[in-house]
Design brief:
The protein is of the alpha+beta class. It has a domain of 112 residues: Glutaredoxin (3-Layer(aba) Sandwich). Strands 2-1-3-4 form a four-stranded mixed beta sheet, sandwiched between helices. Helix 1 links the parallel strand 1 and strand 2. It is elongated. The chain starts with a strand and ends with a helix.
């Protein structure tokens, strides 16, 4: 399986060049075999790329911009989906390739299998059975976690005088009531201040996030407009060249007829 990366070698867009270099550089770092297909100098590559990008993946104007990535005939995605896969350590899955043993993606896949099967590796032995090396106290296995010493101590406490127990109970209840009242007053004083601080922090984060998102959207729109304009100019230049060739052919034909 060969990974195909469709690029525009003569693109004047800095954004497109950066995206193409990012994709190619990362594939080389992973030592993934790939082929670069230029759409600027090869009309067949351009038409093939446009025809094989799924309709739901195309932009609003219907013209997909490079870089576009394929695995043989299967569409993988554009730069944005490639970037998301790289951030999530899922590039091999994005490319439709098996992750090499020991890679982050392979480790994640192994962990996912463990969680899905509901069994942790450290809890099983080589035969896949639960590890019997973990000792469990006899009392816990029998459903009785209390030792003989605890039972004897409980029996001694029951033999003590009821009068002493009643006095201790009254004192304990009085102390508990005072402690609860103090905690409620303290909580009542701290709660409003904490809520106000939380609200202020949330408002600040929301404003910063919204401003940052608006700046990114404006930048992306500007880049898209510039890229579309460059593609239109490129197409117009190619059409002009074709027209010039046709005119030259027509002039030669007329000269031959005149002679």
């Amino acid at each position: 399986m060969v990974i195909k990366v469709f690029l525009a070698s003569s693109s004047g867009s800095t954004a497109i060049k950066k995206k193409q270099q990012d994709v190619v550089g990362f594939l080389e770092a992973l030592k993934v075999d790939y082929a670069q297909l230029d759409i600027a100098c090869n009309e067949e590559n351009r038409m093939w790329m446009r025809q094989n990008v799924p309709e739901e993946k195309k932009p609003a104007n219907g013209i997909p911009l490079p870089p576009q990535i394929f695995n043989e005939e299967s569409y993988c995605g554009d730069y944005d989906t490639f970037f998301d896969a790289k951030e999530d350590n899922l590039v091999y899955s994005f490319l439709g390739l098996p992750p090499p043993p020991g890679s982050k993606e392979a480790v994640q896949a192994d962990k996912a299998d463990i969680v899905e099967n509901g069994t942790h590796a450290e809890e099983t032995n080589a035969e896949g059975n639960l590890d019997d090396s973990i000792e469990v106290p006899v009392e816990e296995r029998n459903g009785d976690a209390h030792s003989k010493e605890e039972l004897a101590q409980a029996a001694d406490e029951e033999d003590e005088g009821e009068g002493g127990e009643e006095e201790e109970g009254e004192v304990a209840e009085g102390e508990t009531a005072d402690d609860e009242a103090t905690e409620e007053e303290t909580a009542g004083d701290e709660a409003p201040a904490e809520e106000e601080e939380a609200v202020e922090e949330t408002d600040e984060v929301t404003e910063d996030t919204q401003a940052h998102a608006e700046e990114e959207e404006e930048q992306e729109e500007a880049d898209d407009d510039r890229e579309e304009e460059e593609l239109r100019q490129l197409e117009e230049e190619e059409e002009a060249e074709v027209q010039e060739e046709e005119e030259e052919d027509l002039e030669e034909t007329q000269e031959e007829e005149a002679e």
